[in-house]
Design a protein that fits this description.
heterodimer, A: extended, B: about 210 residues, about 75% helix
Chain lengths: ~200, ~210
């Protein structure tokens, strides 16, 4: 069975990769079909993850003594309600739009807004570390942060320079490393050196 | 009416989340549980309605012979659920292998055309200004600062090793400035969202500001 999984990963991967570089009708058709199947399998994988999440919470509910069982019940109840609204009234229904606008958006916004306080705490801790590296990082952060406000023209120009020259250079170096790492990892999978799917 | 209930619901949920500023309270946990539930329910709805029904079930029900190839992802997708039980889990390796195969090919193509080649192209600039010089030195230095290999200890290897290490050390400063800029950009976006939430509370809910 392991050899079949390896053969599928290598075969399918090489066809999609070849489709990326060459324009042959057969390769184009196969590449298109494989990408379409990938979308469907990703949806199945998402459902698998959600089923697993539901099972974990049901298990916690079954053992009522465990702290947090009430929160698990709330997770399951909310998820089931939203799912039933979506399935019976449709993904583009007013009811699901209401859920998105008045439940999801406020919660999502509030959770992300909360990060602002943690970032302020992190900046304060970095300031207290008093090393050259953290000072440099904080100075760059302050220049970019204050430079956003139209208060001082010179600071605005400094912000533009920090973003355009050292900021771009740093991010570009990281991106080059990430791209090379991605290619190396992908190639290891495509030649069968790494087989995480048969573990 | 539904808008009024919506605004009240949104405002109460926002306050529940902000209760975390006082500590890890049960009110925050309730908001957390509702958020996870809503996100899970919404994601499941989109996956089932938009992908599995529209792109798989309907084409198969309408013309199963013409769309016979869709039976393959259907079977592979069902095999994925074998992962839920330990003794059936190996059956789920086949769809996982398929996803890894296509995923790695797309990742290689994306990394080449979306990151490596455009970024290298943008780094090749005439070294006529100080900014361009800093850009090239900084980019290569930042790249070298993530180097975790050592060359063979021959004389030439040692010289290259020392040069790469020195250049990488300079590049580390550029990486730190980039981290600072990313930190500031993240802080700005989060503060904007915080202002939006406070405005929602004061304008939409309490109606004390215009």
């Amino acid at each position: 069975m392991k050899w079949l999984a390896t053969a599928v990963a290598i075969g399918v991967g090489l066809i999609v990769l070849a489709d990326f570089f060459f324009a042959f009708p057969l390769l184009d058709a196969l590449g298109f079909v494989f990408k379409e199947w990938t979308i469907l399998l990703t949806a199945f994988a998402l459902l698998l993850g959600l089923v697993n999440l539901a099972l974990v919470h049901l298990d916690r509910l079954a053992r009522r003594a465990e702290p947090g069982a009430g929160y698990s019940a709330l997770v399951l109840l909310t998820a089931l309600t939203v799912l039933l609204i979506g399935l019976f009234l449709g993904a583009s229904s007013d009811a699901l739009a209401w859920v998105f606008d008045y439940l999801y958006v406020p919660l999502h916004g509030a959770f992300f807004a909360l990060v602002a306080f943690f970032l302020a705490t992190a900046a304060y801790r970095a300031l207290r570390a008093r090393s050259i590296e953290t000072t440099l990082m904080l100075v760059a952060a302050l220049v970019v942060f204050i430079g956003q406000a139209p208060l001082l023209g010179a600071l605005n120009e400094a912000k533009e320079w920090v973003l355009r020259v050292p900021g771009v250079a740093g991010v570009r170096g990281i991106l080059l490393g990430v791209a090379l790492g991605t290619i190396a990892t992908g190639l290891r999978l495509l030649i069968g050196m790494d087989r995480p799917y048969s573990e | 009416m539904s808008d009024l209930i919506g605004v009240w619901t949104g405002a109460i949920l926002t306050l529940l989340v902000f209760s975390y500023l006082l500590g890890d309270t049960p009110l925050f946990r309730i908001a957390q549980a509702i958020f996870v539930g809503v996100a899970v329910g919404y994601a499941a709805t989109i996956a089932i309605q938009v992908v599995l029904i529209e792109r798989l079930a309907l084409p198969l029900l309408q013309n199963s012979l013409g769309n016979w190839h869709l039976f393959i992802p259907l079977v592979l997708g069902l095999l994925l659920f074998a992962k839920l039980r330990a003794q059936w889990a190996p059956l789920g390796n086949l769809p996982i292998a398929f996803l890894f195969g296509v995923g790695s090919a797309l990742a290689i193509g994306g990394a080449l055309s979306g990151a490596l080649l455009p970024q290298l192209g943008a780094t090749v600039v005439p070294l006529t200004t100080l900014d361009n010089l800093l850009l090239v030195v900084g980019t290569l230095g930042a790249f070298l600062s993530f180097r975790f290999v050592t060359l063979p200890q021959r004389p030439a290897g040692r010289v290259i090793e020392a040069a790469a290490r020195g250049w990488g050390y300079v590049g580390r400063w550029f990486v730190l400035v980039a981290f600072g800029a990313i930190f500031a950009a993240t802080a700005v976006s989060r503060v904007s969202i915080l202002i939006n939430r406070v405005y929602f509370l004061l304008h939409d809910w309490l109606q004390v500001v215009k």
